Amino acid sequence: MTRQKRSHHKLKRAVAPYLYLSPSLLIIGLLMLLPMVTVIAYSFQNSAVLRRDPSFAGLKHYQAIFDDPVFWASLWHTLYFTCMSVIFHMTIGMVFALMLNSDRINPALRNILRVLYILPWLFTAVIIAVIWRLLLEPNGVVNSILMQIGIIGSKVEWFSSPETALHAVTFANIWAGYPLFMVSLLAGLQGIPKDFYEAADIDGAKAYQKLIFITIPQLMPIIISISLLDFIWTMQVFPLIWITTGGGPIYSTEVLSTYTYKLAFSSYNLSQASASAVVILLISLGLTLFYIRYQKAR
Amino acid sequence: MRKRHTPKDRLITVALHVALAAGLFFAAFPIYWMLSSSFKSNTEIFALPPTILPKAFTLEAYAAILGDPVKLRFFFNSYFVAGAVTVLTVLIALLAAYGFSRFNFRGKGSLNTIIISTQTIPPITLLIPFFGLVVSYGIFDTYVALILTYLVFTLPYAILLMTGYLNTLPRDLDEAVAVDGGSSWTALWRVIVPISLPGIVATSVYTFLLCWNEFLFALTLTKSTSMRTVPIGIQLLMGQHAFEWNQMMAMSVLGSLPLLLIYLVAQRYFLAGMTAGSVK
Q1: ipTM of the predicted structure?
Q2: Which of A13, A126, A273 comes nearest B235 by C-beta?
Q3: Which residues cross the membrane (chain A) (predicted)?
């Protein structure tokens, strides 16, 4: 009797985790893994989604994308947008974290500034896009200030001239995204043992030497993993660009996500859009594998 | 000890405060501008030189938004969808996290890796098959379409956050229930859930925020004005009256209120969720 009970209990322990996980696995399987397979299938079909019996297209849609100069322009814009964003997110995040962590400011001021410096993080991409459109309007406040200081001679149409649009959306994204680095680095800074700095003080180290030889190496794991995540996420940015420039003018801010979206829902070429979506997926997966490897190695 | 109050030292402190002020301007001016513009009339927004404080303070933009049932519907939709997804996500993630945290089983490591990697799947990649599915199941332009698709990208984060939290709780507590002959199900609800409230709050906050901010799926999987959420509503406002900047700013302020309030009230939980992706 007891043995039976015990083996029954054991069986329950063995099955239980799968039961607890089953709703999640069902959702992730049906609504994430299956769609990923579906989109790959779409990319090899003619008139995917639109027709009930699509014919096999082979690599035709991939060929079409790789022959499209707008695709290559989008890839380049995505790279520029992403690299600049990550570099500046990291730099600004680091500078703000170091400033806030300094013992030269009074704790009350530190707490207030910490809250205020996080502000850009609390706003939705669409709202950020609308705010920057207002700020950068030709008759807006930024032009007005820059003209008064004398940096620019006449009104600049930041979002609607091909020379400045990509820089303008990148700037808006830099503004929107640095707090992730700031918050993470601030937490990291507080985790560095104080004796490291005390030992350096005894050796007569200068402030910049402490920064280069203690602070930055100690923060390196955080810097690397946040940079990777930020890179992956920034690559996928859609609403900010969609609302500010919509990819224009004349494709000058087209990125992979807006390019794919337009193929799918403006031209209704869902097969070709799927091919482009698969390319984005492959880039993301490559970076993700790299990220997971790095996390495991740590 | 460090020497203080030498002239050089003072200079550094002053320079630091100047830099802090510049940083504050960079971080907060755009927000301030949104807030102040929402209290201006539309003509004052483009007055030259720009007015830093609204010269003629007015609530007309807010009145226009709050008096329009179409716009109120955007808010209702956002709250409803985000609320429903949050409840579902937290429940489902709690069960999964309990499985991950308290049991050893075959495939645990690879499942964990899959869940971590699903966080980085580009939404645009899922969008096309979702569109196909939603249309073929006849749920295009419904709450169900939004709720189901939102679950997909809230769940992975929620599972990781909750698992992380449950791992910090001592196992003796639920083992005590097992010794008394209780099942793991009893242990979950009697012991784990009551002491997991901080973790549940952090997960809820982050899930709500992800849904509140979602744009791409809401844009594509809904069509009628009565199904649109706040982010899409703001975009629509932009298309309709391209020059009603004060209304757009008022709507942006109203659309940011939930996150601002959550942040002020529950800063700790908020940050726990926001940085969850990076501190696994």
Answers
A1: 0.88
A2: A126
A3: 20-44, 79-100, 112-135, 165-190, 211-233, 273-292
List the domain boundaries for chain A. 1-43, 61-123+164-297
Q: How many domains does chain B have?
A: 2
Do the beta carbons of residue A125 and residue B213 sit within 8 Å?
A: yes
Chain B segment 109-128 residues within 8 A of A by beta carbon are: 111, 113-118, 120-128
For each successive 10 residues of chain A (298 residues), what is the average pLDDT? 65 84 92 91 83 80 92 95 97 94 89 91 92 90 86 85 93 94 91 88 87 91 90 92 89 94 91 93 91 81
Judge whether A14 is closer than 8 Å to chain B, CB to CB: yes
Same domain for B113 and B177, yes or no, is: yes
Give, rounded to a whole angstrom, the gap between the first and last alpha carbons of chain A.
Answer: 49
Residue B155 lies in a domain: yes
What value, to the nearest 5°, has the Cα angle with vertex B210 and ends B112 and B77?
135
Please give the pLDDT value at position B280.
Answer: 37
Whole-number pLDDT of residue B169: 86
Any domain includes B1: no
Name which of B12, B128, B261 to mutate to probe chain A: the one with the most chain A Cβ atoms within 10 A of its Cβ.
Answer: B128
CA distance A116 to chain B (A): 7
Whether the CB of B150 is below 8 Å from some CB of chain A: the reply is: no
Q: If pLDDT is split at 50, 70 and 90, which confidence band does B241 have?
A: low
CATH number of A61-123+164-297: 1.10.3720.10
Q: What b/e readout covers A188-214, taking b as 16+ CB neighbours within 10 angstroms?
A: bbeeeeeeeeeebeeeebeeeebeeeb
Q: Cα angle vertex B15, ends B13, B18, to 5°?
A: 115
Residues B175 and B224 in one domain: yes
pLDDT (0 to 100) of residue A4: 65
- The residue range of the domain holding B198 is 66-278
Cβ <8 Å between B128 and A273: yes
Chain B contact present for A181, CB below 8 A: no
pLDDT at B4: 58
Check CB contact under 8 Å for B123 and A265: no
* Residues of B with Cβ-Cβ distance to A13 under 8 angstroms: 103, 184
Q: Phi and psi of A211, rounded to 5°? A: -65, -45
Asked whether residue B134 falls in the same domain as residue B174, the answer is yes
- Per-residue pLDDT of B15-24, as tens digits, reads 999 999 999 9
Residue type, position B54, single letter = P
Q: What is the pLDDT of residues B73-95, one digit of tens each?
A: 999 999 999 999 999 999 999 99
List the single residue in B23, B102, B129 with the smallest CB-CB distance to A42.
Answer: B129
CATH of the domain at B191: 1.10.3720.10
Give the pLDDT confidence score for residue B274 in this predicted structure. Answer: 66
Q: Do residues B126 and B13 both lie within one domain?
A: no
The answer to whether residue B2 scores a pLDDT higher than 60 is no
Residues B163 and B45 grouped into a single domain: no
| DSSP SS3 for A237 | coil
Q: What is the pLDDT of residue A240?
A: 94
**What is the distance between the alpha carbons of residues B131 and A84, in angstroms, rounded to a whole number?**
32
What global pTM score does this model have?
Answer: 0.90
Which residue is associated with the tokens 């956050």?
B161
A119 and B122: CB-CB below 8 Å? no
Could you tell me which residues are beta bridge partners of residue A45?
A: A56
